């Protein structure tokens, strides 16, 4: 079924791109010496698909072309020609193609497909989740930044929405809506912008109602060794005065001091405390995008080691420096959050251009300060505000189109990891779960939705993204049941107020995130999901309570029925049919293995109609059972099902162990070699 | 001996400095024979009650007319007391040092502890010595309960009742015992009812340099093999090199030629001094405030603790896989067979046998495979990670076992009936406890000290319903399958709940635990059926 569906799909898309089919390809299991899976490899206009030959399962692996980060063709061996496809979501596909020539063809095609040169080639422009126009447009209004600034308490007597950047006249990488101090005139803003890299003048990022302190962001000043700018100095003064409770403000340069000093030679640099009244200047020392890119590369090499020893792993991880960088970003966030919440002091944050480290640090600080950003909706707003609207260069950083590889860097990945580290430290403080972060990371690279396209708001408007693509936020919001953290309680002490991660000694609170970087090595992950189990329990509780209410209402009615009514003479619509359903729908939680039949209710998003728009999140359909109607129906490209094994109590309970029970994984339990 | 002789000063005014999970107390400090008390007066809730046995090291510092005593506890907590008066400080420090290191078992606190909620001796029936045999007998009649060791004459570290092949008489056992270090002849410790394979444990055979053999020992293992399916594997927890060394001093391992059907595999596990050092270094690293993030991971690696966890789990998986998948009988031993041998046999059972994963089943496993099997708790847990001076017999093998269980519980969070609280409690009680359960080194010693009749059992205390919320896993759902853990470094974590317990704020984890219980309880309320 998989094959037929795919071929016809390919035919439809014939005009749009190449299609290729190679049989008898082997998919190797990277982490173990498990027997490779034999199957057919398909190349469509948008995906690489591998379908296993096993007739019962026909397990499928789908990969969007835009997810591919590198393709490596290795030397042909007797067994065939190995092809390594590495993805930006950390999946690695190790294929062996029988014929060298076929392998070369696949390789050449993929090289082209994985590096689109025009935006129109990206999947989001052809992705069609069958929503009508209105629904699609509504999706784009889900996150509303004007509403968000209103929620923070602006505009107010100190801050207002300025139209100075109308039509992107002052700064083309800023949004049109910019909040600045009321006392900052257009003259001051424009003057200040001319003194800042890429004209990214100081603008409001977060306003704290309780203390009046604010977080503003900008790029570095063009100060060189001695240059000054009166308007820029006035701009900072205006920001400081907008917080009457404090007589000074912090200026935080998130770069290492040496880097900032080097910039002075190029006519850039940092604020001189002597020139700006009442500022306290502070370096924080987060490394630049090139250091981060190579750090991630080193860490991924460690993740790819085959059966590493504990030392190999720990040394490799330390040498990559990755966790050190994560800690540096979080420390910066903690510093700023403390200034704003405890000292009541405003902070201006910048790095060089003010779109990478500045975005990381501002969003971490906001997250620590404001519980709203720890909710599902609030987190989307946070990314929209600090990353998308303020011109984080998604296209360049995540290589959406073929471009300069030196521009690529895991900047937002690091932010997501900071958030994950915090969720581990504060398990009740976040409304969303790990899966939410993982899926956002996935879609930053997938280009299935228009949300993260381009480098700036200006570019997105020119491309008419909102008219031509779908919003990721609407998609995530629709499936929010999948992303909830059952331990979250809005009234919990962790969820209220400022989060205060311990500062010292705290090294050991930073952990390797295997749920991200090794997430396709299912065997390495916990085999049972507490989150899914608890969500199912919660849902069941709710259902029981609703049923109880129905029964109580009914009881009340019965009491009201006059005695003359014969028992058989029930009023129409009495929930009689509810009764048998009640007992059938209350499987014992204590024995989840037995209630797999009751499963659908705990995962509403699993129904086939809704599964449609999950298409790129797919990836491996492990444990695909032909007996499951939902799954066997998923043969077309639009209806992927991501891994189910960890989704439900019953699945989580049985499948993995059952799986490992049938199919020993020699890396986990070494075979007898005696 | 009179305790009062050791108490040089019984009373002083003191201030307990706050720490994570420790609120400050100012009040009167009082030293009794077994406790340190610090009370703000009139039943204040934050009173400190410290079992002196829990003190691992005492450090004192004088400053003017007062002093500071730092008490480093075996449960890894560190308490700082400011005491008025220099002389008092020194006297109190001296008293604590003397009282915390008393070696006599029968004057230890468990012999004085009389809680109202428990009755002496009531725990005797909790884990009857023949319980394991009864379970095996339900499945097969190939094995029998031997009382050859009823007077502890054959083996001092074994319990009186042991399970052996039915066809093997007591005289054969006695002769085999003479061929094994400490008399620990091979006995049955787990029967895998799915395929009838068995796991045995013993100590090393006394082969010596001239490769002695023992017909009875060979006969015993042959009979066991015949019952378990015909193929056997000796899992020696030492390297081949270490075995060679052992032969020089009279030890050795099973020669292939002598034991047909048995193959041999050397899988060395760390033990003794190096393991204790590993523990000490890890605790140092976890409490070192000057350690920067750049160096933390290599420091963690240098401690080797996670490597030991990985290796222990790997070998247990190997044994479990051999039994479950390949139908092989396993004999585990190292040298004495009282340390890492028990680590391997108990972990294997936890992996394979769902019964061991219940609250009672786990206690029964500990009772059988650690306490009655003669793990020398008193020697191994005499000191924890802070003690100064050279360790003698200390080694945190039991802690390593608990850590491995914690790793299992992290990878299979629904499959164990007990939670982290249980593992923490076991760690504490193994090192210092008001209960008699972990006293002494063997059943023989416990018998001589009358531990079972004169002290209370930890199990009856843990089984009280008020402990449920602390010890039980609210999301437990029985899992009939084997738990195959991943032993990749990415899958193993530092046990923060234990090693970082006193260095990080406890509230977030506590709230999460309470929330977990709340969700499950709410469901129970909604569906009282």
TrEMBL record, chain A:
Residues 320-364 form the Tyrosine specific protein phosphatases domain. Keywords: Cytoplasm, Hydrolase, Lipid metabolism. It is a peripheral membrane protein. Gene3D superfamilies: Pleckstrin-homology domain (PH domain)/Phosphotyrosine-binding domain (PTB), Protein tyrosine phosphatase superfamily. One of its GO terms (cellular component) is cytoplasm. The active site is at residue 351. Substrate binds at residues 288-289, 351-357. This is Myotubularin related protein 7. The lineage of its organism: Eukaryota, Metazoa, Chordata, Craniata, Vertebrata. The gene is MTMR7.
From TrEMBL, chain B:
One of its GO terms (biological process) is phosphatidylinositol dephosphorylation. Transmembrane segments: none annotated. GO terms for molecular function: protein phosphatase binding. InterPro entries: Myotubularin (IPR030564), Myotubularin-like_Pase_dom (IPR010569), PH-GRAM_MTMR6-9 (IPR048994), PH-like_dom_sf (IPR011993), Prot-tyrosine_phosphatase-like (IPR029021). Pfam families: Myotub-related, PH-GRAM_MTMR6-like. This is Myotubularin phosphatase domain-containing protein. One of its GO terms (cellular component) is cytoplasm. The gene is LOC114044754. It comes from the Eukaryota. Coiled coil: none annotated. Belongs to the protein-tyrosine phosphatase family. Non-receptor class myotubularin subfamily. PANTHER family: MYOTUBULARIN PHOSPHATASE DOMAIN-CONTAINING PROTEIN, MYOTUBULARIN-RELATED. Residues 123-499 form the Myotubularin phosphatase domain.
């Amino acid at each position: 079924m998989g094959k037929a569906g795919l071929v016809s799909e390919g035919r439809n898309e014939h005009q749009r791109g190449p299609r290729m089919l190679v049989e008898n390809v082997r998919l190797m299991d990277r982490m173990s010496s498990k027997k490779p899976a034999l199957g057919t490899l398909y190349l469509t206009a948008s995906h690489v698909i591998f379908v296993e030959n096993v007739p019962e399962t026909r397990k499928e692996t789908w990969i969007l072309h835009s997810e591919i980060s590198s393709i490596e063709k290795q030397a042909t061996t007797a067994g065939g020609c190995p092809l390594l496809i590495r993805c930006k979501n950390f999946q690695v596909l190790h294929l062996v193609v029988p014929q060298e020539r076929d392998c070369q063809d696949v390789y050449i095609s993929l090289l082209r497909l994985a590096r689109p040169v025009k935006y129109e080639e990206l999947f989001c422009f052809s992705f069609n989740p069958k929503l009508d126009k209105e629904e699609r447009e509504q999706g784009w209004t889900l996150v509303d930044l004007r509403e968000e600034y209103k929620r923070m308490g602006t505009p107010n007597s100190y801050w207002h929405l300025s139209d100075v950047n109308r039509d992107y006249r002052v700064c083309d990488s800023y949004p049109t809506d910019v909040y600045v101090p009321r006392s900052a005139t257009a003259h001051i803003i424009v003057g200040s912008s001319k003194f800042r890299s890429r004209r990214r003048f100081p603008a409001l990022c977060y306003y704290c109602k309780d203390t009046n302190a604010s977080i503003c962001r900008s790029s570095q000043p063009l100060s060189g060794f001695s240059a000054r700018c009166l308007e820029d100095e006035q701009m900072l003064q205006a920001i400081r005065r907008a917080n009457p409770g404090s007589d000074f403000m912090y200026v935080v340069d998130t770069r290492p001091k040496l880097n900032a000093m080097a910039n002075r030679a190029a006519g850039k640099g940092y604020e001189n405390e002597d020139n700006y009244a009442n500022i306290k200047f502070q370096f924080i020392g987060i490394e630049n995008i090139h250091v981060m890119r190579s750090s991630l590369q080193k860490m991924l090499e460690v993740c790819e080691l085959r059966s590493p020893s504990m030392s190999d792993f720990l040394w490799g991880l330390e040498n990559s420096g990755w966790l050190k960088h994560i800690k540096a970003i979080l420390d910066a966030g903690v510093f700023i959050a403390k200034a704003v919440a405890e000292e009541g002091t405003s902070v201006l944050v910048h790095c060089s251009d003010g779109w990478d480290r500045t975005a990381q640090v501002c969003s971490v600080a906001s997250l620590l300060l404001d519980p709203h950003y720890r909710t599902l909706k609030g987190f989307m707003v946070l990314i929209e505000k600090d990353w998308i609207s303020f011109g984080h260069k998604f296209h360049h950083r995540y290589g959406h189109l073929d471009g300069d590889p030196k521009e690529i860097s895991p900047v937002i990945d690091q932010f997501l990891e900071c958030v994950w580290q915090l969720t581990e430290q504060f398990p009740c403080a976040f409304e969303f779960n790990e899966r939410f972060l993982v899926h956002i990371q996935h879609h930053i690279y997938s280009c299935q939705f228009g949300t993260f396209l381009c480098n700036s708001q200006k570019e997105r408007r020119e491309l008419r993204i909102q008219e031509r693509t779908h919003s990721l936020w609407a998609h995530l919001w629709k499936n929010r049941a999948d992303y909830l953290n059952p331990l979250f309680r809005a009234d919990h002490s962790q969820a209220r107020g400022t989060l205060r991660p311990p500062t010292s000694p705290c090294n050991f609170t930073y952990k390797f995130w295997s749920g991200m970087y090794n997430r396709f090595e299912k065997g390495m992950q916990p085999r049972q999901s507490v989150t899914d189990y608890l969500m199912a329990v919660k849902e069941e509780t709710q259902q029981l309570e609703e049923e109880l209410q129905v029964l109580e209402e009914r009881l009340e009615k019965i009491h009201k029925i006059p005695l003359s009514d014969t028992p058989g003479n029930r009023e129409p619509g009495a929930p009689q049919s509810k009764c048998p359903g009640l007992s059938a729908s209350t499987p014992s939680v204590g024995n989840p293995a037995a209630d797999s039949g009751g499963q659908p209710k705990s995962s509403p998003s699993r129904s086939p109609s809704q599964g449609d728009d999950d298409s790129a999140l797919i990836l491996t359909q492990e444990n695909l059972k032909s007996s499951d109607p939902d799954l066997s129906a998923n043969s077309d490209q639009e209806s992927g099902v991501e891994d189910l094994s960890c989704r439900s109590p019953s699945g989580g309970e049985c499948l993995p162990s059952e799986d490992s029970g049938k199919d020993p994984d020699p890396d986990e339990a070494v075979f007898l070699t005696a | 001996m009179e305790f009062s002789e050791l108490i040089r000063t019984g009373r002083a005014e003191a201030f307990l400095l706050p720490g994570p999970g420790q609120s400050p107390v100012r009040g009167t400090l009082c030293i009794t024979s077994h406790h340190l008390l610090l009370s703000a007066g009139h039943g204040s809730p934050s009173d400190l009650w410290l079992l002196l046995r829990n003190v691992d090291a005492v450090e004192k510092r004088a400053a003017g007319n007062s002093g500071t005593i730092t008490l480093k506890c075996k449960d890894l907590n560190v308490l700082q007391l400011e005491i008025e008066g220099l002389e008092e400080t020194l006297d109190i420090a001296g008293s604590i040092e003397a009282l915390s290191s008393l070696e006599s078992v029968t004057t230890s606190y468990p012999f004085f502890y009389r809680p109202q909620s428990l009755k002496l001796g009531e725990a005797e029936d909790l884990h009857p010595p023949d319980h394991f045999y009864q379970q095996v007998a339900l499945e097969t009649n190939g094995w029998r309960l031997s009382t050859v060791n009823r007077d502890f004459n054959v083996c001092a570290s074994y319990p009186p009742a042991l399970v052996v092949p039915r066809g093997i008489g007591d005289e054969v056992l006695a002769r085999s015992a003479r061929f094994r270090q400490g008399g620990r002849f091979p006995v049955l410790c787990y029967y895998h009812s799915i395929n009838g394979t068995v796991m045995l444990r013993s100590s090393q055979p006394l082969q010596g340099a001239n490769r002695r053999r023992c017909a009875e020992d060979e006969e015993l293992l042959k009979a066991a093999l015949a019952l378990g399916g015909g193929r056997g594997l000796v899992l020696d927890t030492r390297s081949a090199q270490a075995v060679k060394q052992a032969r020089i001093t009279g030890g050795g391992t099973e020669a292939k030629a002598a034991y047909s059907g048995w193959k041999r595999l050397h899988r060395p596990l760390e033990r003794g001094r190096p393991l204790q050092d590993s523990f000490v270094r890890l605790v140092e690293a976890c409490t070192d405030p000057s350690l920067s993030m750049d160096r933390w991971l290599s420091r963690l690696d240098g401690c080797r603790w996670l490597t030991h966890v990985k290796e222990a789990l790997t070998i247990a998986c190997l044994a479990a896989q051999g039994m479950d998948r390949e139908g092989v009988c396993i004999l585990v031993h190292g040298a004495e067979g009282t340390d890492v041998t028990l680590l391997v046999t108990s972990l294997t059972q936890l992996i394979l046998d769902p019964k061991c994963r219940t609250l009672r089943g786990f206690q029964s496993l500990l009772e059988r495979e650690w306490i009655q099997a003669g793990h020398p708790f008193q020697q191994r847990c005499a000191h924890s990670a802070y003690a100064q001076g050279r360790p003698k017999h200390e080694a945190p093998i039991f802690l390593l076992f608990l850590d491995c269980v914690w790793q299992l519980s992290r990878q299979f969070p629904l499959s164990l009936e007990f939670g982290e609280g249980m593992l923490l409690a076991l760690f504490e009680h193994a090192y210092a406890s008001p209960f008699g359960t972990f006293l002494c080194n063997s059943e023989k010693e416990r018998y001589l000290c009358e531990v079972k009749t004169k002290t209370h059992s930890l199990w009856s205390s843990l089984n009280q319903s008020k402990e449920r919320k602390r010890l039980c896993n609210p999301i437990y759902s029985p899992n009939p399958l084997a738990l195959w853990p991943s032993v990749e470094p990415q899958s193993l974590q530092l046990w923060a709940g234990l090693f970082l317990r006193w260095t990080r704020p406890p509230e977030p984890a506590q709230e999460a635990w309470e929330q977990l219980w709340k969700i499950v309880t709410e469901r129970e309320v909604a569906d009282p059926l």
